[in-house]
Amino acid sequence: MSASYDAAAVAALADQPVSWQDKALPPAWWGRTVREILADRPRLSQLPTPLLTLSGPGMEHNLATLARWCTEHGVELAPHGKTTMAPALWAAQLDAGAWAITLANAFQLGVARAFGVRRVMVANAVISPLQLRWIADQLAADPSFEVLVWADSVRTVEQMEAARSAHVGADARPLDVLVEMGGAHGRTGARDVETALAVAQAIAAAPTLRLAGVAGYEGAIAHGADEAGLEHVRAYLQSLADVHTQLADLYPADVTPVVSAGGSAYFEQVAKVLGPLASTGARVVLRSGAYIAHDDGYYREISPLGSAPRTDGDRLIPSMHGWVRITSQPEPGLAIFDAGKRDLPFDEGMPEPQLLRPRREGESPTPLTGLAVSKLNDQHGFLRFPEGEPPVVIGDELRVGLSHPCTAFDKWGLIPVIDDPDAADPVVVDLVRTFF
Amino acid sequence: MSASYDAAAVAALADQPVSWQDKALPPAWWGRTVREILADRPRLSQLPTPLLTLSGPGMEHNLATLARWCTEHGVELAPHGKTTMAPALWAAQLDAGAWAITLANAFQLGVARAFGVRRVMVANAVISPLQLRWIADQLAADPSFEVLVWADSVRTVEQMEAARSAHVGADARPLDVLVEMGGAHGRTGARDVETALAVAQAIAAAPTLRLAGVAGYEGAIAHGADEAGLEHVRAYLQSLADVHTQLADLYPADVTPVVSAGGSAYFEQVAKVLGPLASTGARVVLRSGAYIAHDDGYYREISPLGSAPRTDGDRLIPSMHGWVRITSQPEPGLAIFDAGKRDLPFDEGMPEPQLLRPRREGESPTPLTGLAVSKLNDQHGFLRFPEGEPPVVIGDELRVGLSHPCTAFDKWGLIPVIDDPDAADPVVVDLVRTFF
């Protein structure tokens, strides 16, 4: 058993038989375990369409790249596990040195507990008495379990304390709470330093809570990477640093305060503004989640290690792809494929046609240009191209690039990992189970 | 065992224990079976947020209403099962007299076969040799199993025939194929009568296929219900009827030809234009799927039995709701709640704030006006309201109306069914398992 998660529980996922419930897999595999299937080194061509795959080497590269980048920049990483909801990928992130797994809510925390994840940051307020009681029970049952939650108002702190003090005694382990600092026109988070300090004081005064640091999310403050947007992000991060500095006397003596920000879009700005706090005793924690899969859309554009890099280090590799089949070619310039909103992400840009799979054995994939996905229905996609000789025919299989890992992973309960998305017929090297 | 599905397999779903994998349920219920849980008549207040629920009486009303409407209008119903992917709801639809279940692809057909659904229309071409072989094996293994698929081009027919004739003998049960008629600027489907006739001739000439009718989807032709849109829909449906009429001599003598169209938006037009074909020996089959849940958005507006009805019969009742909790109130006019793109549909309009749940026992829900959901992130929602005294506070629970059942159901593996969404604390009367 690893120190940071239950390795046996993660490994046991490979002993589960697959079934008709797994839409990524062919009927011939139903009833076999993941381990048995992988022993045959199956090929992509044995799988049905539509399909989502991950690239094994790509993810390994991305894991190592961000781990190294964090080390070099003096920050720690608590990758946001909501991106993948895949305990096997969380395990890989923890094995690569992650300090904790970040999650969004109590359900996701339940999944993490089922796989023994020892340290979790819930990057939200937990208000529900039901969920606060369950977290209290988890803290009581497992002395090694650590959890940090956020609060952005005095009322939130009062509700947390009321639910906890009605449930646990004064000698119970306290719940660690970070003050959440927000920004104008952002999402959650106190909108000014004064409010944030009042929240911190309320946490410090609450008998069953413990003030554990400051947190925020710069990804809600900007959506582009022009200099004005980056300046806006830095100003916000500086306010977060200011709150932390002003809390120095409020932190309990036995706490290493956490200062946390950083999605996958602006983590270089976080390291720049918050990184220096590490030398004053703070633990500076990034929470990037999308980096493990990266993408061919939003994150390719905006990541500091994407197509227009803004920091030193290797570029991340887009490591998730869709595979679709042309099922209709009803009019010039239009083909319909067999994947839709149930299969592929569509909220941060449409899938990008990239490759035509070999039509015959022995051929290579053909790069596609001049095609665009114009629309997805529930179970269909619309592929547009110039009229004239069509670049695809009915029966063709295409690889598409995708934008936004969070809304790609959540459409698949089991995701094949392949050895090389550019290969003529990639080998399936793993099957990753997700829990949404 | 029912004649139309495996009632024992559906009933067995209630014997499965729930777990940390079921995000709709509280930890206190993990390890208990659905049957055990329901025996306690639990209340909505025992469930976590965010949550999706269905209304039991609402769905019963909708099931009975459309079944009656179809009988009165001389058409049959093969409800599109992709909407819910819930075998227990398919069973209710079949019990209400549905002729078949419609599905979108081979994966969904696999789910239907796991629950013994006897007759399935796959409202798409099936091109993949892998999937065609599996369907052939299913037909061979179960003489009572009936499946109909679509084709909209000669190439599609050729690919189907090639895959099948390489796999089954000449004496195998043929695969029933409907010619798919489309319309300009629509989705799949032959764009003119001439092409459709050529497809039909190809099917009729293919040794392992059987021409079984004509199909199409008018929902891809229009998106509004103004008179111009409805006229466009009728013209399209008439072309579908024309194809059927011209196929009279091609249908095998032992086939009752199926003529199928009809989503949940224009089924009254389908009955009007295609219904008369029933008297000439055709089986006219609607495929509406969304009607069972109906909604507070797209379908409320456009359904012939919605808020602006275009046909006789009871109105459908919106029977799915989201339940969310306010977790932050960071600036005037803005509150953040705990549900996002992972929890609630957002592709056909944002959730609609409807009710504030009682803050104290003994109170009633309060109707909400003047609030709007402006945006969903992955795990957060943005609630906007006029500045001034805020209508909600942190900790409040809200009911929201939803738009588009297909993208609501697919976010939940287990969906509580309640007795009355307007009650102060509804009783949970069922837990419906979905398979996406």
Q: Could you explain how this protein is built, in words?
A:
2 copies of one chain form a homodimer. The first copy, chain A, has 436 residues and is α/β, with parallel strands linked by helices. Chain A has 2 domains: 22-55 and 316-433, D-serine dehydratase-like domain (Lyase, Ornithine Decarboxylase, Chain A, domain 1, Beta Barrel), CATH 2.40.37.20; 63-290, Alpha-Beta Barrel (TIM Barrel). Chain A is built from 12 helices and 18 strands. The longest helix of chain A has 20 residues, at 227-246. Chain A starts with 6 loop residues before the first helix and ends with a strand. The mean pLDDT of chain A is 97. Chains A and B meet through helix 5, helix 6, helix 7 and strand 10 of A and helix 5, helix 6, helix 7 and strand 10 of B.
CATH class of the largest domain in chain A: Alpha Beta
Architecture (CATH level 2) name of the largest domain in chain A: Alpha-Beta Barrel
Range of helix content of chain A: 25-40%
Question: At the third CATH level, what is the topology name of the largest domain in chain A?
Answer: TIM Barrel
Instruction: Specify the structural class of chain A.
Output: alpha/beta
Domain count of chain A: 2
CATH superfamily (homologous) name of the largest domain in chain A: Alanine racemase
Q: What's the N-to-C terminus distance of chain A?
A: 25 Å
Indicate the low-confidence ranges of chain A by residue numbers. none
Please provide the count of β strands of chain A: 18
One letter per element, helices H and strands E, the order of chain A comes to: HHEHEHEHEHEHEHEHEHEHEEEEEEEHEE
Mean pLDDT of chain A: 97
Largest sheet of chain A: 10 strands, mixed
Overall geometry of chain A comes to: globular
Note the quaternary state here: homodimer
Strand-residue proportion of chain A: 15-25%
